[in-house]
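Appendix B. Raw example, untouched.
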Amino acid sequence: MPGHDFLPTVAWRSGAAWIIDQTLLPAVFRRVAIRTPEAMRAAIRRLAVRGAPAIGCAAAYGAALGLGRPSPARGRAEPGVRVLLGRVLRAADLLAASRPTAVNLSWACGRMASAARRLAGEGVPPGAFRRGVLAEARAIHAEDLAMGARLARAGLPLVRARRGAAGRAVGVLTHCNAGRLASSGHGLALAPVYAAHAAGRPVEVWAGETRPLCQGSRLTAWELARAGVKVTVLCDGMAAQAMRAGSVDLVMVGADRVAANGDVANKVGTYGLAVLARHHGIPFYVVAPSSTLDPSCPDGAAIPIERRDGGEIRGFFGRVTVAAGAAVDNPAFDVTPAGLVTALVTDRGVVRRPDRAKMARLAGRRFPVDAPAPAPTI
């Protein structure tokens, strides 16, 4: 597709995981090869790869990298399965601790560890063990791609104008980056937007700048513009005025973790947009794959919030912008209460006005990865 040549965000090729270094965008587009779990952990920590589904896929490949390359030396024996299992488990533990809020990361690492233990328990030889571990990482990646396609189908009917807005493009306000760069390819919150654009529906995205690291202006605007979708960047403080002016028909954001009661953790600033949307009578949609659902987390208060280095706020792209002696606080995420969510769009269906009972029903839904998204009946 024209403009989509930057995909995929994460890939496996020639014994290495390849990522797009998102810290360099939009000025420089560069793919980098990751060859060790330690290098993958560093890439996740510095946000070279980011977005809940993308870091889950990256971590899965990072755990596979823990195996190391098969020994090429003549006469040197391949490590036994017990040694290889230990390597995978250590890599999975290392990667799971790299960022605390996005549940996809720990979910993917846990799944890789479970697959490695199962393979070891089956008594497979070292070569088959290596192939099986990599196959699990590839499966996680493929399933995420399929989930994105279902998110697009499930959310597409929601991309519509409010009354009195006929004759202009549907205005979608989003925050941070929940697009193709944050996933395996289709995106999260932007998946329905891309689907609407592909269907020929006029749509315009209002992208919040998303300070302090500007994922909205650097990443969301970049990928949408390359795809030919009309996008306008707003400073975060301008969202209320855009809503008041009637430019925004709906808000669509992603999620890094969804608690058992429907509370949602996402990039800091999301909660404020939910409050503004409620005040202006604008639908507030959260679009997230089922891998972000965390039934073990009772509510938003139990979601760990990552706090990042204050230097991200004190300086703005190389220039000091905070007065010396002033303290700064830098939570990377906030929690939006379920009561402010118009609907949670998932690959298992659409949950309107999510609550604990509806989330429990959603958690129990299962269907093949290539099945279409179910109707929004919950």
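End of appendix B.
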